[in-house]
C-alpha cells in the first residue's frame, strides 16, 4: 500500500509541511512510525492492525526483557528447590509402587541431580517433553499441593504472649536474643513500633470519634484479606498488596465511613464477593476472615499494635516501590497521595488502640461474633448483602458503649 502525502500550508509560517496519511485507516494524519517496518500510523488501534508480525514480536521482546530483569532472590530459589525436591520424592515413591510409570517422570535424571545439588535450573534446560509435563503439573494443581499452607501469625500460640513496652514500642533485647530471633524467623510475629507511640492529645484536638472501633474492624479485615491473598508474603509485591488493602478497606481507601460493625463487615464481604476478588473464595472465604478479625480482637492491644505496625510498614514500603515504577506521572502522584493518607490513618489508629482499655477488645469481638452469626444465616454466597435495620441499630448502640 502506497503512502499518501499531503502538502499542508502552515498559516503561522510562510513554508509548507508534508503530512503523511495513516496507511491503515487512511483518514487521519500519521503521527508515529513503526520501528520495525517503518509504516506510518496515527493511533494505537491502527498500530495493532498494521502488522501482526510487528506487534507480536514487539510484545515478545518486551516480555523477554522484563523476564531478564526479574532476578529471583535466594529465598525464592530456596522455596522452589524445596518444592521440586518434594515433588521428586513423591515421584520416586509413586515409581516404586508402579514401575510402569518410570517413563512419565516429569524431570530427567540430569535435571533432578542439578536440583538436588542446588544448581540453578532454567526453562531452556528442559526438553520439550519436560516442559509440557511441568506445565501439565502446574495446571492440574500437583505442584500447588506441595506448597506448605501458610499459617497466619495470629493463629500461632506465640501470638498470645506478645510483649511491648508501656509506651507501645518494642522491648529492648540483648544481642543474644536478637541473634536468636533472626535465626528463628524474625517475621513470625510482626514487630511493634521502634519508637514510643505519642499520646492522642498530641495528634488531635478534642475527643476521638466513637466510630474508631468500627474503623478498626474494617482495617483488620482488609489486613487479613491481603495477607491471606498473598499467602503471608506481602514483601513479594508490596505495591500490589497495598493496592489490595486499600481497595478492601473503605476507611483507608477514603471511600466511605461505616458507622456500625454490621455496615463495615457487610461492605468488606461485598468486596470479597465482587468479580475482582471472587477467585479468592467468595462468601465462605469472607466469613473465615471475620473469624480472623475475632481472633485478633481477643488477642488484645499488643497484637493489634503489631498488626497495624506491619500494615504501616507495608504501606511505606509500597510508597518507596512506587518511585521506581514506570507509570504516568499523574497516576503516580494520585497513588502516592492515597498511600500517604492511609499511612497517617493507620498510625493514628495505632495510637488510639494503644490508649484503649484491655476489656474493650473482648466486647468488640463479641459484637463481631454477633454480626458474623447474622451474616452467616443469610447464606447469599456472592450476592449483595443488606443488613436489617434492627441489626444495624443494635450494632450502633453497642459500638457507642465501647
Automatic annotation (TrEMBL):
InterPro entries: Shq1_C, Znf_HIT, ZNHIT2. It comes from Canna indica (Indian-shot). Keywords: Metal-binding, Zinc, Zinc-finger. The keyword Chloroplast does not apply. Residues 22-54 form the HIT-type domain. The keyword Zinc applies. Transmembrane segments: none annotated. The lineage of its organism: Eukaryota, Viridiplantae, Streptophyta, Embryophyta, Tracheophyta. This is Zinc finger HIT domain-containing protein 2. Pfam families: SHQ1, zf-HIT.
Amino acid at each position: 500500500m502506497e503512502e499518501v502525502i499531503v502538502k499542508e500550508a502552515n498559516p503561522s509560517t510562510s513554508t509548507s509541511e508534508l503530512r503523511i496519511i495513516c496507511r491503515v485507516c487512511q483518514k487521519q494524519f500519521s503521527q508515529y512510525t513503526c520501528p520495525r517496518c517503518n509504516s506510518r500510523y496515527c493511533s494505537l488501534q491502527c498500530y495493532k492492525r498494521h502488522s501482526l508480525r510487528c506487534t507480536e514480536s514487539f510484545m515478545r521482546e518486551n516480555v523477554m526483557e522484563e523476564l531478564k530483569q526479574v532476578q529471583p532472590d535466594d529465598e525464592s530459589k530456596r522455596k522452589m528447590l524445596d518444592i521440586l525436591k518434594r515433588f521428586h520424592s513423591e515421584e520416586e515413591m509413586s515409581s516404586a509402587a508402579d514401575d510402569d510409570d518410570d517413563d512419565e517422570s516429569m524431570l530427567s535424571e540430569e535435571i533432578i541431580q542439578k536440583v538436588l545439588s542446588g544448581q540453578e535450573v532454567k526453562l531452556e534446560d528442559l526438553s520439550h517433553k519436560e516442559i509440557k509435563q511441568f506445565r501439565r503439573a502446574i495446571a492440574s494443581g500437583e505442584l500447588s499441593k506441595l506448597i506448605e499452607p501458610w499459617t497466619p501469625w495470629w493463629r500461632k500460640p506465640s501470638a498470645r504472649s506478645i510483649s511491648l513496652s508501656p509506651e507501645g514500642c518494642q522491648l529492648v533485647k540483648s544481642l543474644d536474643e536478637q541473634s536468636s530471633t533472626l535465626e528463628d524467623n524474625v517475621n513470625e510475629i510482626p514487630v511493634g513500633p521502634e519508637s514510643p507511640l505519642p499520646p492522642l492529645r498530641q495528634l488531635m484536638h478534642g475527643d476521638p470519634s466513637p466510630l474508631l472501633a468500627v474503623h478498626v474492624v474494617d482495617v483488620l479485615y482488609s489486613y487479613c484479606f491481603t495477607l491471606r491473598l498473598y499467602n503471608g508474603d506481602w514483601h513479594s509485591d508490596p505495591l500490589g498488596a497495598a493496592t489490595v488493602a486499600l481497595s478492601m478497606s473503605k476507611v483507608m481507601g477514603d471511600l466511605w465511613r461505616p458507622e456500625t460493625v454490621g455496615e463495615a463487615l457487610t461492605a468488606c464481604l461485598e468486596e470479597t464477593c465482587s468479580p475482582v476478588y471472587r477467585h479468592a473464595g467468595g462468601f465462605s472465604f469472607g466469613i473465615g476472615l471475620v473469624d480472623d478479625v475475632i481472633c485478633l480482637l481477643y488477642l488484645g492491644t499488643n497484637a493489634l499494635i503489631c498488626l497495624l505496625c506491619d500494615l504501616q510498614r507495608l504501606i511505606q514500603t509500597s510508597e518507596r516501590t512506587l518511585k521506581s515504577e514506570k507509570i504516568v506521572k499523574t497516576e503516580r502522584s494520585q497513588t502516592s497521595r492515597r498511600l500517604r493518607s492511609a499511612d497517617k490513618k493507620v498510625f493514628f489508629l495505632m495510637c488510639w488502640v494503644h490508649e484503649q482499655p484491655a476489656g474493650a477488645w473482648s466486647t468488640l469481638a463479641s459484637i463481631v461474633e454477633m454480626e458474623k452469626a447474622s451474616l452467616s444465616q443469610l447464606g447469599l454466597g456472592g450476592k449483595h448483602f443488606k443488613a436489617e435495620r434492627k441489626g444495624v441499630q443494635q450494632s450502633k448502640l453497642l459500638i457507642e458503649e465501647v
